[in-house]
Design a protein that fits this description.
296 residues, Rossmann fold, six-stranded mixed β-sheet, four-stranded parallel β-sheet, 38% helix, globular, cysteine biosynthesis, P-phosphate_BS, Cysteine synthase, EC 2.5.1.47, transferase
């Protein structure tokens, strides 16, 4: 290992762990991509770094500038980390019901965190971020419209999955939040093999699952392309929570509820096929949910 590596050099190349015993089907392989192994602890390290780095390269921002972004958690942590490393100021806007661990982690990296009413959810945080951009002159990265979000996954996550499965992946399953992960990975994998099935996990109408959203029409991420998702599976909060607990107890994978939602949907895919290689995204680590009731 080179002695002059920085934290940036350790983004990506996350493990792909065999958890086929969770689906117990002889010819179906279930692989879990452990994105909690990124430096900032989540899949959001990839787009966060790519959005900031590409903006710096284009000259859209420079060192010392102040960025603002709305987040429900993981993107904010990643942005706080890489803004600090790259010499930028970071203001993050998030709902007040976000877990304490997330808020404290962002502040530990030096970001200013503004909490908005839980009644207005992430949509209200997004509205305030636009207001701060207009009133304060901050630069809004806007992860929900920024093509550098999904391109971070096109450059890294997609190729890693293809290479690490030796091109044998048949199904890719991901929670859908900003939808950057599923858009970037789908774009790459479909270029390699158009027959790979892309599956998105979405909460049902009665469920609240951190990191997975069913957006009101006016808030749907601008780069989301429904044609790049072959199947959407709805998951209940109860199923996502139970699967998250099962991941820890039966696979040694300590993760958040969005990962439970992803793996639950992967298990539903496994029931519908006779053979295949399913790759599911494990979005983050479970330690940033310990103040919630997720593991109770």
């Amino acid at each position: 290992m080179a002695l002059n590596n920085t934290i940036i050099d350790f983004i990506g190349n996350t493990p792909l762990v065999d958890a086929s015993h969770l689906v117990s089907k002889k010819d179906v392989t279930l692989l879990l991509k452990l994105e909690g192994n990124n430096p900032g602890g989540s899949v959001k390290d990839r787009p966060a770094f790519n959005m900031i780095n590409e903006a710096l390269k284009r000259g859209d921002i420079k060192k010392g500038d102040t960025l603002v972004e709305a987040t429900s958690g993981n993107t904010g942590i990643a942005l706080a980390l890489f803004a600090q490393v790259l010499g930028l100021n970071m203001v993050l806007v998030m709902p007040e019901n976000s877990t304490e661990e997330r808020v404290k982690t962002m502040r530990a990296y030096g970001a200013e965190v503004i909490l908005t009413s839980s009644d207005v959810g992430i949509e209200g945080s997004r509205d305030l971020a636009f207001k701060l951009r207009d009133e304060k002159g901050y630069t809004l990265l806007n992860q929900f419209e920024n093509d550098d979000n999904w391109k971070g996954h096109y450059k890294t996550t997609g190729p890693e999955i293809w290479n690490d499965t030796n091109g044998k992946v048949t199904h890719f399953v991901s929670a859908m939040g900003t939808t950057g992960t599923i858009m970037g990975v789908s774009t790459y994998l479909k270029e390699k093999n158009k027959n790979i099935t892309i599956v998105g996990a979405q909460p049902d109408d009665n469920s609240r699952i951190p990191g997975i959203r069913k957006w009101p029409e006016e808030y749907v991420p601008k780069f989301f392309n429904r044609n790049k998702v072959d199947q959407v599976i709805e998951v209940t909060q109860a199923h996502a929570k139970a699967t998250t607990q099962r991941l820890a107890k039966e696979a040694g994978v300590f993760a958040g509820m969005s990962s439970g939602g992803s793996v639950y949907c992967a298990s539903q895919v496994a029931k519908s096929i006779d053979k295949g290689v399913i790759v599911a995204i494990i979005c983050d680590r479970g330690d940033r949910y310990l103040s919630s009731d997720l593991f109770e």
